[in-house]
Write a structure and sequence with these properties.
about 325 residues; alpha/beta; 10 helices; globular
Length: about 325
């Protein structure tokens, strides 16, 4: 047997994936949770309900696409981070399903943090899984997280992630979504805000709000509100928002470089699907990015990590 099932039930996406380790092939299915127009998020009770409805459909689609499989192990996201007290109810749906599959098939169940899954998915997508054997800096940039972590190899969990910089208030994805909703875009607003920003030719000189290596993004939302009342073009507001996120992330990495040097840097999380963000950091730092399908929330990383930990424990 050499197929590995991954399940992730994050705050906004239901996802499942199968990793064929001998062929390094990954197949996945995912579905966004429904959010009513004009709303800026979803309650955890609603997220749990929607995952409960959607996960069987997602798994059914995945296995119809992949055919009969001999599953060697199951991986699941159990919490946002591998830290004491890190918890979100939405992950309970995935844990329940993964546990049932594991027991029914008599195969191991491995638990990973949502963040670890993001990092592994980015490395898989970029064909850089070998980095799991050495230190590197990973940025996890999403609606729930804006962090830089120092990743070191870990014999037990594969990834040991230590937070070395973060946002002190709003997360990048929150800023983008709030500005997007402000501009009458659908939630989550990242893809639509990106398209809108591409219509702008404005040039902004943005000084990020920093305290050591930590950034603050609450001022981005406030500035965009002010720009809207002053009748700026919506496309210019969208571009300002994205460029403000770039400036903040750049400020974080610059502050880390004196301490950690020029370690490889990996970007993951839904916000990093943005082409402008990707081009900026790739051109300036040769940063590693996932393809969009592996940047946004997905179960790919848990499937890949399950394969690695399974092989180590044989």
């Amino acid at each position: 047997m050499s197929d590995f099932l991954g399940i992730d039930t994050s705050n906004y996406t239901t996802s499942a994936a199968i990793y064929e380790s001998p062929h390094n092939v990954l197949l996945q299915e995912k579905m966004l949770l429904p959010v009513k127009k004009g709303e800026k998020g979803i309650r955890q009770s609603d997220a749990v309900f929607h995952h409960t409805v959607q996960l069987p459909e997602i798994i059914d689609k995945l296995f119809k696409k992949t055919g009969k499989r001999d599953i060697s192990a199951v991986g699941v996201s159990y919490a946002p981070r591998r830290l004491e007290g890190s918890y979100m109810p939405c992950f309970l749906t995935g844990i329940s399903a993964a546990t049932a599959v594991s027991r029914a098939l008599s195969v191991p169940l491995y638990r990973f943090s949502h963040q670890e899954g993001h990092i592994a998915a980015a490395l898989y997508s970029a064909d850089r899984l070998e980095l799991l054997n050495e230190p590197f800096i990973a940025f996890h940039v999403s609606g729930g997280t804006t962090e830089a972590v120092l990743v070191n190899p870990d014999n037990e969990h594969i990834i040991n992630a230590e937070i070395v910089a973060s946002s002190s208030d709003l997360k990048a994805g929150q800023a983008i979504d709030r500005v997007g909703v402000m501009l009458s875009l659908n939630f989550p607003a990242g893809p639509e805000l990106e398209k809108l920003s591409e219509k702008s030719n404005a040039v902004f000189k943005i000084k990020p709000s920093m305290k050591n290596a930590d950034c603050s993004l609450s001022g981005v939302e406030n500035k965009c509100k002010k720009m809207l009342t002053e009748n700026y073009e919506k496309s210019d507001i969208a571009l300002f928002c994205i460029d403000s996120v770039i400036a903040a992330l750049d400020g974080m990495y610059k502050a880390l470089m004196p301490k950690y040097g020029a370690l490889p840097v990996v970007f993951s999380g839904g916000v990093t699907s943005n082409k402008r963000i990707k081009n900026y950091f790739h051109d300036k730092y040769n940063a590693i990015f996932a393809e969009p399908a592996f940047s946004a929330d997905n179960a790919a990383g848990t499937a890949v990590l399950s394969s690695i930990i399974y092989d180590r424990r044989k």
